[in-house]
Amino acid sequence: MTSTVLQAETLDTRIGKLEFTHDFADGYPTDATVKKLFNEMDFQRAVQAYIWAIPFASMAQWQYANIVAALDANPYHVEPR
User: Which residues lie across from 11 on neighbouring strands?
Assistant: First the structure.
């Protein structure tokens, strides 16, 4: 019968070091690692929301520019009441 000693493990990632109570497969993340991962998820969601909003803002500006161009091109345009 073999006994294995589980040791804490640290992984180097692009967001910094992530520490686990045992090895990565069997351990739990430390409180600092949990906080770092949730901060990273929040950042990724914010970036995703920004990227997904770009086409919406672009389309709104395109519509506005076309309305302004149409009004400038037609000297007889009367605003509806």
Answer: 18
